[in-house]
Amino acid sequence: MARAILFGIPVSPGIATGIVRFMHNAPHDEEKRISPEAVAQEQEKFRVVVEKVRASLSAAMQNVPEDLAEYREVIAAQIEMTRDPKLVNAILSRIEHRLVCAAWALKLTIEELCALFRDMDDPYLRDRAQDIRAVGLRLREGLTENPSRNSSGQTDILIAEDISPADVMELDLDCVQGILTEEGGPTSHTAILSRSLRIPCLAGVTGLLGIARENEQVIVDGLGGRVLLGPDQNDLDRHTERREEYTAWENFTLQTCTWPAEMCDGVRVGVQANLERATELDAVLRSGADGIGLYRTEFAHLSARLPTEEELLEEYASVATGIAPLQAVFRTLDVGADKMLHAQIALKEPNPALGLRGIRFCLRHQGIFRTQLRALMRAGASGNVAIMLPMISTLEEVQQVRAILQELHQELVAQKLPHAPRLPLGVMIETPAAALICDALARECDFFSIGTNDLIHYIMSIDRSNRHVAYLNESLHPAVLRSLKHIIDAAHRKNIGVSVCGELASDPLVLSVLLGMGVDSVSAAPRFVPGIKHLIRQFDAESCTELAYNVLLSTDAAASKRMIYEKLHQSLGPELFFHTTSLFTDSLS
Ligand code: PEP
Ligand code: MG
Questions:
Q1: Fewest CB within a 10 Å sphere: which of 89, 128, 160, 523?
Q2: Would the pTM count as exceeding 0.85?
Q3: What does the alpha-carbon distance between residue 388 and residue 379 come to, in Å, rounded to a whole number?
């Protein structure tokens, strides 16, 4: 085929070359009519396929490695779907009443259900459309009796509209070199899984299914966000060389990950890890992180039953003792917006991102909050635990939490339960209100962590999950930069530490500016920790300060990007291309 370049969102870094393998057969669905006499046979054929798909999903579940155990839940949800009468009966009934073949009845039902979920306000439920589509693809494949999901035994680049974690778990991972999907984004299940498995992956590759051809050669550039279909020899040579360089660089950063992140002029920066589940602790320990800068505690609360204090204690204590003597910063429950508790869904807030989220929810529902705080205080007896409050916008919120902690301390003393009487208490600075009163907040708490993911969205007044305004997600907007500087200076005036735990921390271009503004530490996904530490060791504080000074003077974000890029390209050379950045994807190619 002719050489073609497509662009996508790089969700798992690395470069891979291989041949196109469509993950799912894409049979041409057409409305095939059947006679009333054929109905029973067609329904039976469908029932048999449902059984087979359920059996293969159960087998896939057995293949999930221990440290990725959370994916079992995703596969279990898909198994449940194959039992769901809403899905199965709707298809059987369509076959009978519309006299159509099973494949057509399946197609109509899946489309209907996906549309239903896609239109839901709650992003968690919206994401369920992905699971329905995944189950639908499997059933469709079963009905066509020509499955092509098996790997070719060669170096495959899997291509699909979307790929579910169950699909990935069924593969011969030794043969799969890369994954490309038309749908999905950086937070999809497959994106997270491919990062854990270290498979280069691009999501949201527009036009992919229409252009790619089975067995054709393809290059996945998970660093530059590009797909090269039908590459020529020159492309192949260039990317092989780049892949070798990238692998050598990654190995080097891993070998040196325990070295301190100290800039050339001796200024030391903390590099910690962000964590979502206790099962990821091993990855943190291997990354050389200086502790856990952000433990997102929401996940235990997202299933139908709320966790008990003992369950939370077990989870928190395992993390705290596992990372000790280093510190684990636990962020208290940040539900709302894109992570809803079952009870919250019923609230139907008109604008949940501006609603009862984070600390607002916790102070309203103190039973849930107190259970979590007690578990954290008790975990503090055996590890180095700190508490961090999300979505703070008033001083009173912090004061209220301090009062609750004091009450809980009395309670635990009375119950003779071992606990830490006073844990360090920090706040996330992620609302414009918190940014503007950070001098007052700095008097009330022990540390700040800047949640740039939210802070930028709230400063720019854009909804985090609204792609129409995603172009305004501008980390170098003067309003963002000035806020960051204001927060860092306020923390330092009160002698408290300030960290950045949003995604910006792993973007090399922005990192240099953050360091120049004086941030004490950064916290990022474990995978990025060794690279960030290596990068910091090549910066010098004085140049970073000068860069930050110049960028802060500018009111032109595009000019700031150019300035930082030129400076870093000069000092780091090609190594800059081994880091993923949300800025300048085009210039990095
Ligand atoms: C942030 O807002 O930057 C952050 C780290 O928290 P989360 O992404 O969980 O909202
Ligand atoms: Mg946040």
A1: 89
A2: no
A3: 15
